């Protein structure tokens, strides 16, 4: 399995589309940080106008912590697209290019091949989130410096700069888990189709569709929303509450692990039954 | 009796209502160059893909070296090298890197073997070139190289001459003969270029519409066919009764009658038919594999 995973990683590293994700994060994060550097004060003053009526705010509101917090929101749509570029291609791309039949002629079971592709996809996903974290935090620190974090969620929470490091660590871990769910979903779709576009379009359509339902908060879906995987994409925000709701985070963790298991189980089942006709 | 390297028994494959392979049984002996003949859509590729585990059979069994592949956990694939339909590789990788991936996937460690096989197919000088820039002939040779990389005892080549010019086809034949004679590897070659099979195979099978038509030694099949004469006429019944009177075996095939006649007797038989006022529009002695093939699949 290790050998197979290393081979899959080698293929990912050698594929040009792998670097689209890193380039996109570099450009997006860079552009947003520069925009905030030049026009951030104005934007933030609009956002906290009401707050300033009641509180006296001192120090640098725009700092690397706030920038990292803002950019973590890209986990909802933008990062999933970049993940699908690679994980969605894992099986479907190889099926359309004909290399799938080449690797399936080797003495590994289809389960082993599927799992090695999933593992290498997860490593790519982790590296993408780590890159996002480094880009936002390091570039933010260079441009804005450090400072306390003001979070406008369920009221106002001000977190000391000394108190946010571990929160960001767990927030990124939570975000990574959500992105692994996305990678598993696109891998599963990838096992059903023979072109590389299908898994990308399919995964993003599902995420956007579920996000719309989740955002609308229609009473009809109220009871199922906690079990819809997209509703957990923002659970990282819980780490920025004063009193962290551990039970809710545990449930979120379990639900997402469940989705990873189910998506992989369906993907492997289908991949095992699949006739390679391409 | 020769050892069988591949034994296929009552193999079937259905895609929904369509039966692609229908109760095919055949066997390949060690050391054979085994021709797999059939028109497009006959079920050749489906059969070969089932041998490689790419397609799951609906029924039947496949034995490699006497071992049923359905319970072998794919270990048997280390004894088979295959090039199915066209040589597809990772276009963004070099020839060397492509082979390295496949070599490692064969659970082998001595990468010197990659050099050996690239030399064998005359591609060592191009090892660092990306496969995306390869010509069809080079890809085909690289395809052969990847079949050899793990020292298999059986190689399956599905239409290996597809897209090659006449020189490329001749080179491919030489390479296949070299693999078989010098390396002692059994080769299964499927092709619609019938002369290719005729030139290099010692045994063959003809399949059509998913069914086996005939299997046997190429030379014997050819010799048998030398005795077959095809007659076409507006009145086939008259020819039939004439042949029955002469106690000559024959069979009806669509718009013709195929009779088994000793080659020396053919002029005499024809003379007698004319004297009996039997009008014959065409008389043809079936001599080539192509004619045999076309006759069989009608």
Quickly name the level 1 CATH class of the largest domain in chain B.
Alpha Beta
Estimate the global geometry of chain B from the Cα principal axes.
elongated
**How much of the residues of chain A is beta strand, in percent?**
under 5%
Largest interface: A-B, 24 and 32 residues
CATH superfamily of the largest domain in chain B: P-loop containing nucleotide triphosphate hydrolases
With helices defined by DSSP (H or I, 4 residues minimum), what is the helix count of chain B? 10
Oligomeric organization of the protein chains: heterodimer
Summary, kept brief:
Chain A is mainly α and 278 residues long.
Please give a handful of descriptors for the protein shown.
A: 3% strand, B: 298 residues, alpha/beta, Alpha-Beta Plaits, 2 domains, four-stranded antiparallel sheet, 10 helices, 34% helix
Task: Give an overview of the whole structure.
By secondary structure, chain A is an all-alpha fold. Chain A contains 11 helices and 2 strands; from the N terminus they run H-H-H-H-H-H-H-H-E-E-H-H-H. Chain A has one domain. In chain A, helix 4 packs antiparallel against helix 8, helix 5 packs antiparallel against helix 8 and helix 8 packs across helix 11. The longest helix of chain A has 35 residues. The radius of gyration of chain A is 21 Å and the shape is elongated. The model of chain A has no long low-confidence stretch (mean pLDDT 84). In chain B, 41% of the residues are buried. Chain B is an alpha/beta fold and 298 residues long. In chain B, the strands form 3 sheets. Chain B has a 6-stranded mixed sheet with strand order 6-7-8-3-9-10, with helices on both faces. In chain B, strands 2-1-4-5 form a 4-stranded antiparallel sheet, covered by helices on one side. Helix content of chain B is 34%, strand content 28%. Chain B starts with a strand and ends with a helix. In chain B, helix 5 links the parallel strand 7 and strand 8. Chain B has 2 domains: 213 residues, P-loop containing nucleotide triphosphate hydrolases (Rossmann fold); 71 residues, 2-Layer Sandwich (Alpha-Beta Plaits). The model of chain B has no long low-confidence stretch (mean pLDDT 82). Chain B is elongated and about 75 Å long.
